[in-house]
Amino acid sequence: MFVPARVPAAVTDAIHRGFIRALNSPEVKERLVGNGYDLLGTSPAEFRRYVLDETAKWAKVVKMAGIKAE
User: Fold this and answer.
1) CA angle 23, 7, 51 (to 5 degrees)
2) How far is it between the farthest Cα atoms of the chain?
3) SS3 per residue for 14-68
4) Three-state SS for 6?
5) Tell me: the pLDDT tens digits for 31-47?
6) 7 to each of 12, 28, 44, how far by Cα in Å?
7) Can you tell me the distance from the alpha carbon of 54 to that of 23, in angstroms, rounded to the nearest whole number?
8) How do the domains of the chain map onto residue ranges?
9) I want to staple 3 with a disulfide (CB 3.0 to 4.6 A). Which of 7, 58, 62, 68 is the partner?
10) pLDDT per residue over 1-14, tens digit each?
């Protein structure tokens, strides 16, 4: 889940807690797992790091391949 960059950490943390609570509810968990999803529930900081790492990795691939936006 993404929020705008300037959302205060307290708000992001509250959204995260609510999202994790929903993911852990039996109904939601059963439905998502039944549809093939893996529920990870990382922290906002871990997710941020993942997105930054993936962006850097794929930017390098795009540059090396000479891919240009149309």
Assistant:
1) 60
2) 46
3) HHHHHHHHHHCCHHHHHHHHHCCCCCCCCCHHHHHHHHHHHHHHHHHHHHHHCCC
4) coil
5) 999 999 998 878 888 99
6) 7, 26, 12
7) 24
8) 8-39, 42-70
9) 7
10) 899 989 999 999 99
Amino acid at 67: I
Token pair 């795009």 is found at 62
Tell me the two tokens of residue 34: 């039944």
Q: Tell me which amino acid residue 14 is.
A: A
Question: Which residue type sits at 63?
Answer: K
Q: Please name the amino acid found at residue 47.
A: F
Residues 6+ apart with CB under 8 A from 28: 22
Amino acid occupying residue 59:
A
